[in-house]
Write a structure and sequence with these properties.
- The structure is a homotetramer.
- By secondary structure, chain A is α+β, with helices and mostly antiparallel strands.
- The first copy, chain A, has a single domain, classed as Hotdog Thioesterase (Thiol Ester Dehydrase, Chain A, Roll).
- In chain A, about 25% of the residues lie in helices and about 35% in strands.
- The first copy, chain A, has three helices and five strands, in the order βααββββα.
- The longest helix of chain A is centred in the first third of the chain and has 14 residues.
- The mean pLDDT of chain A is about 95.
- Chains in contact: A-B, A-C, A-D, B-C, B-D, C-D.
- Chains A and C meet through helix 1 and strand 2 of A and helix 1 and strand 2 of C.
- Strand 2 of chain A pairs antiparallel with strand 2 of chain C.
């Protein structure tokens, strides 16, 4: 049974392009914001500042099913699983208000890296914290 | 006596640059988000979709007093006044948590325009709504 | 035999984040810039303004193999094929200077849409122009 | 007599918003790109990596006179002067193709800072290089 975490994203001018809907790379931003809230931004800042560790996106598979418009308040739904010593897998969806299907879906693989951009095992404290979510 | 409106902005990866702090043009984004919340995003969407009217920044004077870091949750403080038939003036400040002075201040002039980018008087309904804030 | 189109991207402050390398959603921007140069931006503007047609990304599969740093001038390599009446498929890679492998690869599917965001067959003039590239 | 440096900026999807023109904070990006080309990005990277020094925008006064549209290739015109031990002053304008007046003008003050975000005198080597431009 997987927990789904919800994060709310309001669409501002900065998010749209001249076609009238959200510019597609921005969904990767919303998905990252949502992951940061799941992991906890303060824990991320601490890992970076104290242990020199961060997370990098290794793979991102996105499907864009619907356009999203200015002023809409959307719901980003996020679930994840740990995959071995280095990797976390994330399933994410962005839903427009009152929608029957997601507007955008993403499968994201993240790895843990040090500040020299070398792969690093997920810290035990991180794994423990994530297993409690 | 001027009302100060508060809007909260969390700093994500997307907001920073490789110098370690928020990339300076992004403060114009936060100031715009805050203005959209003061005016009300739904009213803005309605004005645009039904009357073909929007607001454009005519002048922006910014002063950058302090760097802002990842994961900080900042307070954008906004006040405004109407200035003639076409213009609104905005004073905005971004405050880091527990700060003694603002990190960034801005004086913004906005004008009302139609979709052909011609100056248009502020709609009466807009003026009325703003005077109630 | 597939033509590879080259597009040069310089990494500015705006492209990086506080981890010191390019913020990952930005690679979708560079890939789009490169596709716009292949298709021709003026043709895109004309299609949009005169026929009300545009292109939307339907799927994007990205793999991030290496970090990219401030001031690097990278080479985006793009090839494409037409796939049926509605779709174009793009293979894109971003190469750092003097690299032995790409830093980021992408498989992008684009569809043609009208301004109501409904699927629309690729215009014949567009297909003809693309087949000449 | 002041040298005017030219830098070309093409407007992509990413630059526009749903009002149909360039999103206003992006002009600060173009102005920064142009300054980086005047100063030389490799020199900036070297200053940062070897001496831990960078430049921060202290003040930015912008005036927005005209909207800028998708696919336009604009000319950013930049001139500067040194102002005391810490500061450089920049006058920048963005011109649309065949325009009779600039679309956006900016007066930018930059200061030199170390990685702890403390004010630092402009390095002599930097001043010398700038005086030759």
């Amino acid at each position: 049974m997987t927990t789904i975490h919800h994060h709310s994203v309001q669409i501002y001018y900065e998010d749209t392009d001249h076609s009238g809907v959200v510019y597609h790379p921005n969904f990767l931003k919303y998905f990252e914001r949502a992951r940061e809230h799941v992991i906890d931004s303060d824990r991320l800042a601490q890992l970076w500042n104290e242990q020199g560790l961060g997370f990098a996106v290794y793979k991102a598979n996105l499907t864009f099913l619907d356009g999203v418009r200015f002023a809409e308040v959307c719901d980003v739904q996020t679930s994840f699983e740990l995959d071995g010593k280095y990797k976390t897998l994330w399933h994410q969806e962005l839903w427009r208000p009152n929608a029957k299907k997601p507007a955008v879906t993403g499968e994201i693989e993240m790895v843990c890296m040090d500040q020299q951009k070398r792969l690093h095992p997920l810290p035990d404290s991180f794994i423990e914290a994530m297993l409690k979510l």
